[in-house]
Amino acid sequence: MKTARVPVPLLIPAILGLIFLILPLAGLLVRTPWATLFDRLAEPGVVEALRLSLITSTLATVVCLVLGVPLAWMLARVTFPGRRLVRALITVPLVLPPVVGGIALLLALGRRGIVGQWLDSTFGITLPFTTAGVVIAEAFVALPFLVIAVEGALRGADSRFEEAAATLGSTRWTTFTHVTLPLVAPGIAAGAVLCWARALGEFGATITFAGNYPGITQTMPLAVYQTMESGDLEGAVVLSLILLVVSVAILAGLRDRWLTTP
Amino acid sequence: MSALLDAHLVASRGAFTLDIHLEIAPGETVALLGPNGAGKTTALRTLAGLTALTGGHLRLDGRDLTALPPEKRPIGVVFQDYLLFPHLSARDNVAFGPRRHGMDRRSAHAVADKWLDRVGLGSHGARKPRQLSGGQAQRVALARALAVDPQLLLLDEPLAALDARTRLETRGELRRHLADHPGATLLVTHDPLDALVLADRLVIVEQGRVVQEGDAATITARPRTDYVARLVGLNLYRGSGDGHTVVVADDFTLTSTDTVSGDAFVAFPPSAVALHLSEPSGSPRNTWPAVLTDIQHHGDNLRVRLDGPITVSADITPAAAAQLDLSPGRALWVAVKATETRAYPAV
């Protein structure tokens, strides 16, 4: 197809926008201490933060899948009073500044929080400033991503397949596991990857609710921040590079399967 | 033979109300025929339990099904676009029902293979639905519905999604399978040919009500509504009969060789209508002046519509059309022999 002449008032901002997005990433790559990279990567603090990040974001994704897929199903398939309100509530953590989310979590699940108090006195469980707290903070922020993605997939899937299953003697639960889930599997996978990426990058809610303890609650983004604060720019660059590589790898993996725009 | 299915289906949605009685004997195939929006699919969905009844009753083999959810009903459904599960092979699609009815995987696969064999797709078991042609998918859908041994088989426009050629073949095959089905069968369609070929009895619904039912011969000979008349290709008029004449419009009477009295129908095929340039004399007992309003191809002939005291369709040959110099607005004389009309009571 022949490209028509692009108007200058559109062309220039478009190019500037692209540069604006790429320049910082290029800056990161330029300032990477390639010579000492592998030594720095092997530092115990780095490995520990990366390990903690991968574990907590994966666990948070699992939590989101277990809670979010049924929630999305309820929103997409069951008519109940206040459904619109529920959907609106679910999107709140999406637009809420994560720091506020962290404080909200602290008020609910902290040692003096409404539920946290009871958890502490009844089971002796304290969540804030623990690895479990990190998982909760990440899941809180990432759950809306999964619910919205899966609900969209469920709405897009033809519910008449579920009716066909019912006429063949399938109960609603069996229909869910044998027909609905396989039909929306790509949507769930895409939602899970988005959810995982969001959890991996989580900073505000984590540092507020779980603190910043190396080995326990210090995930990669927190480590980047602390390294930077302590004046070790090179160290922060190395940690950032790792997060960048992981993010790009996810994006590349997603693009091939689910994100290809027509 | 007592009815296997005994249903009075009442379902309201907004201004539309479905209210029909249906009885189907074991081994019998009934076609529910009607225009779009007549409530055919709603009727099928209430039988399957996918749409709730708001009244009436539903008994199958003496058992009340009204309160049962779809998965507990002894039914099989072939949907209009088949709805084969895209992630399962043809064999697993057919085995899905038996598996849900508690059969172990091996037995269910054996049942599925048997049914795929019966519909002539024994070698296609491993294929996914997207690898099947339209006709093959239709047969897999039929096998899937029959694999649960339903007492009531429901088919929703089973041939509508097929092209003309495949449709012809599939229709013949479907007829064979329906004849073998020991339970009751209800076929929903808007295609009179499907209904005539596949069903033992026709039930015609319009606007949620049964307007006529009976075997094909009765319905084609004696239509009772404009829809049915158009379906079977007849001109139909309702009026007041007195001996050989029926008053069908103000001061307009049709004459028939049949004898009727009171509320009556008069019907005649478009091929019985002759057109003339001037008032004909002689044998025809029904003649009137009319104006041509429409010409369309109809097979090898032309079908024309004429306005006058009554609106009538006529079939004429292209040669006759050329001779009469037909075009819309042309004034003509219409003649219909009394021997070509049928008159019968409307009640």
TrEMBL record, chain B:
Keyword tags: ATP-binding, Cell membrane, Ion transport, Iron, Iron transport, Membrane, Molybdenum, Nucleotide-binding, Transport
Record-linked Gene3D superfamilies: 2.40.50.100, P-loop containing nucleotide triphosphate hydrolases
Annotated ranges, domain ABC transporter: 2-232
Gene Ontology MF, one: ATP binding
Family matches, as InterPro entries: AAA+_ATPase, ABC_SmlMolc_Importer, ABC_transporter-like_ATP-bd, ABC_transporter-like_CS, ABC_transpr_FbpC, Mo/tungstate-bd_C_term_dom, Mop_domain, P-loop_NTPase
Mop domain sequence ranges: 281-345
The name this protein goes by in its record: ABC transporter ATP-binding protein
